[in-house]
Automatic annotation (TrEMBL):
CDD domains: TOPRIM_OLD. Residues 525-589 form the OLD protein-like TOPRIM domain. Signal peptide: none annotated. PANTHER family: ATP/GTP PHOSPHATASE, EXCINUCLEASE ATPASE SUBUNIT. It comes from Stenotrophomonas bentonitica. The lineage of its organism: Bacteria, Pseudomonadati, Pseudomonadota, Gammaproteobacteria, Lysobacterales. This is AAA family ATPase. Residues 1-50, 255-469 form the Endonuclease GajA/Old nuclease/RecF-like AAA domain. Residues 248-267 are annotated as: Disordered. It holds the Pfam family OLD-like_TOPRIM.
Length: 781
């Protein structure tokens, strides 16, 4: 048995999403504010509601007016002295819900007997809906109307007080502004939500399961006759543990007895976690067995010796007190005694130390220098803490050691769900990679686990780290993406993309992209936009062009990936599935004809391009004349269903240049980035001293002639020139910040900036005409 997928509805920005879970490890990736944390929080809210109670902000903002309207309808009925019909129907479209879909083998049906939808169900998909709904609508109505009446009475009292102060006024002034709780049903629930709402479970029908449509899940509607199954139907089925993102290392925190509490709540110091683990699994005073007799006898002997010493030490003090008349004949006499516990030895700041120097003594390495826990680096503390916490989760699930004696339930849940938020905090890149590769193995390191299919562990991790993402298979990645207001709802919401579906059956393409991204460590999964560049010169110079000339663009989350023109098109399935705004900066790669030799670009010469990106993706033509004459529309690909996603290609275009000594302008046809940069800054390169390509470019300008002649010299130099060395020479130059960005790159960057500004607002034009406060608040969420 394992969780196949979950569908979350009406929870924060997750209006209606489906998240497929891998059998072992699932990784949530995506840009900031894309919904990853909301999904993790929804799992905690629904599966551990006692430890993680709901808040009113968990309701999707676009549904807040509906909650307010329900309260208004109650008030209107009261004012008209009508009978209020208290039914759940008006609430159904706004209530947060989580549909949990399991895959159950026929031999496991007894484990889910309370969830079976029909008598003829024989295994396979099994769904249960967890919905956060009102406990008692009559009680909610009564208390809300009472609180509202009290608020109205206070307002009337304020008006009467002002009128009393101005008895002679025909029209007394309005009282000062006074906001009294509750102003609406939404305001009422914002303070008392948990008192009136609870999580209820309902059985779902596998036959009515529908696939997502237009990036949104389609949860099935419950029949009107559906009855709740209760709030604890998953209690013996799924064990949930989690490690939140906020861990506060180095700070002493109070202990926590709840063995399922998140890491931060249980004390973030390693000594706190060690003490908690000892109490649950090792403490000899809890259900002792013969192995514990030695430890218990040692504690008893130490306690007796300490009691004797304390009695001798306090004898003089007690004798002095008795001289004051107390205790009398009938008064109880004080005595000092101790109660020693083995765990007390861990209750101090130096319970955990780190050895920093050792010496050899009698054939063994003995520590001579130790530092306390707080003096160790945060990265090591975080790594050790998380690994130890995972061990504790595993052992608590398996009832290891003393936990088997103190736990009332002997049944081990068949599913263990572990949630970890942002494990990369404080960890350097290599440790991040090690952790994500080893975490699942730690959770399965028990003699009864391993490959045991009857006891399943599913690990869900949310991350912002490309190092973590690239160590995980594409099939385990779930990409969270923001959708703009007006696309599927009046406010921005999120959708989730299953990355296992990106490349289909093309294993070669997936293999290339996986290996390439792992080598490049690009932040494609976390960026707001991407720039794919042709070679090392563009990779070094384009970011500096952005810093020098495009300050607004420099403040955006953009990832730059170097990938040759012959391979950029292989990124197409990934980019289109991510819906990632992308600029591809590439080269014309002109040939004398189809299958011909490379040649300097020229119009009307029947030339073709050798660039696979231009031939097969954008603009999807190999004719050089057509490429040179292409407008912005031809260089851009958009999605009909996604107005914020687009891909634009930028390649060399004719440059109007005035050469030294020339009487008028001339037109140059650059072949690649380097000569395009030189033609746009001809005076700069005529005076630039350097080696390699820089020297050859300066010589080409000094030789004179028209643009075609100079271009031909540059073209010949580029055949064996070192482009990375060229870029470094240009970066070193004093006037670098004053360079003119090649026109084709400038046009591409300006297009990207325009698209990012539109994406930043995240509201479609039809919504921009009449913005309202609710939309503005949702955009800021």
């Amino acid at each position: 048995m394992h969780i196949k997928f979950i569908e979350i509805a009406n929870f924060r920005k997750l209006l209606s999403i489906r998240v497929d879970l891998a059998a072992a490890t699932t990784l949530f990736v995506g840009a900031n504010n894309s919904g990853k944390t909301s999904a993790m929080l929804a799992l905690r809210r629904f599966l551990s509601p006692r430890r993680c109670p709901f808040e009113m902000h968990d309701f999707t903002l676009c549904h807040w007016p509906a909650v307010i309207d329900i309260g208004k309808s109650w008030v209107a009925a009261r004012d008209q002295e009508e009978v209020v019909e208290l039914v759940i129907d008006p609430w159904l479209s706004v209530l947060p819900a989580l549909d949990l879909w399991l895959h159950v083998e026929p031999g496991e049906m007894h484990l889910v007997r309370d969830l079976i939808p029909t008598l003829d169900w024989e295994g396979g998909s099994l769904g249960v809906r967890l919905r956060y709904e009102p406990k008692d609508l009559k009680l909610l109505y009564k208390d809300f109307m009472g609180a509202l009446s009290d608020a109205e009475a206070m307002r009337m009292a304020a008006i009467a007080a002002v009128a009393a102060e101005h008895p002679d006024a025909d029209s007394p002034p309005a009282p000062p502004k006074l906001t009294i709780w509750p102003e609406s049903l939404l305001d009422f629930l914002s303070k008392r939500l948990s008192a009136y709402f609870t999580v209820q479970a309902y059985s779902l029908d596998p036959a009515k399961l529908m696939e997502p449509s237009k990036s949104q899940a389609q949860p099935q509607a419950l029949p009107p006759t559906s009855l709740p199954l209760g709030s604890d139907v998953l209690a013996g089925l799924i064990r949930v543990h989690d490690i939140p993102a906020q861990r506060g290392f180095g700070e002493e925190q109070p202990s926590q007895e709840d063995e399922d509490a998140p890491a931060a709540a249980a004390g973030s110091r390693l000594s706190d976690q060690l003490k908690s683990y000892y109490a649950k699994h090792l403490d000899p005073t809890k259900g002792p067995d013969p192995k514990d007799l030695g430890a218990l006898q040692a504690i008893e002997a130490a306690q007796d010796a300490f009691d004797k010493r304390l009695t001798e030490s306090f004898k003089a003090a007690f004798t002095e007190v008795e001289g004051m008349g107390y205790p009398g004949v009938t008064d109880p006499r004080p005595r000092v005694s101790t109660r020693l516990k083995a765990i007390d030895g861990l209750n101090h700041s130096a319970a955990i130390t780190f050895e920093v120097d050792v010496i050899a003594k009698d054939g063994e390495m003995m520590p001579i220098l130790r530092l306390p826990e707080a003096n160790n680096g945060l990265g090591y503390q975080n790594l050790i803490s998380m690994i130890f916490r995972l061990m504790s989760f595993r052992d608590a699930w398996m009832r290891v050691g003393k936990a088997s004696n103190t736990t009332s339930a002997v049944h081990t849940e068949p599913l263990h769900l572990v949630l970890i938020e942002e494990p990369e905090a404080h960890l350097h890149a290599q440790v991040q990679q090690v952790f994500i590769k080893k975490a699942y193995a730690v959770l399965r390191a028990h003699e009864d686990l391993g490959d045991n299919a009857k006891l399943r562990t599913q690990l869900v991790v949310s991350t912002h780290s490309s190092h973590v993402a690239h160590e995980t298979s594409f099939s385990c990645l779930r990409y969270f993406r923001r959708l703009p207001a007006g696309m599927v709802a009046k406010v921005p919401v999120s959708t989730v993309i299953n990355m296992s579906e990106v490349f289909g059956a093309n294993g070669e393409t997936e293999r290339f992209v996986t290996r390439y991204l792992r080598a490049q460590h690009a932040d494609l999964f976390f960026a707001d936009a991407a720039i794919l560049v042709e070679g090392p010169a563009e990779r070094m110079l384009v970011p500096n062009f952005i810093r020098a000339h495009y300050d607004e663009l420099n403040q955006c989350y953009i990832t730059l990936l170097e990938i040759g023109g012959s391979h950029a098109h292989r990124m197409r399935p990934l980019i289109e599935h991510l819906g990632l705004l992308t600029l591809v900066i590439t080269d014309l790669d002109s040939l004398t004809g189809t299958g011909g030799a490379s040649a300097q670009p020229a119009k009307g010469a029947g030339q073709k391009t050798n660039n696979a990106t231009l031939k097969t993706w954008i603009p999807a033509t190999d004719d050089i004349d057509a490429l040179i004459n292409a407008d912005d529309k031809a260089k851009t690909r958009r999605s009909d269903g996604d107005p914020l996603f687009a891909v634009r290609v930028a390649y060399q275009v004719p440059v109007v240049v005035t050469l030294p000594g020339a009487t008028g302008p001339d037109t140059a046809f650059p072949y690649t980035f380097e000569d395009a940069l030189a033609f746009e800054n001809i005076a700069f390169f005529a005076a630039l001293h350097g080696t390699g390509l820089v020297r050859k470019f300066r010589a080409a300008v000094d030789a004179g002639g028209d643009a075609a002649a100079i271009g031909s010299c540059m073209y010949q130099a580029l055949k064996d020139g070192k482009k990375a060395e060229f870029a470094l020479d240009v970066l070193e130059a004093e006037g670098f910040d004053n360079l003119v960005v090649p026109r084709y790159i400038a046009e591409g960057l300006e297009w990207l900036l325009t698209q990012l500004k539109k994406k930043q607002v995240e509201i479609l034009p039809i919504e921009l005409t009449e913005p309202n406060a609710l939309q503005t608040e949702q955009v800021a969420e």
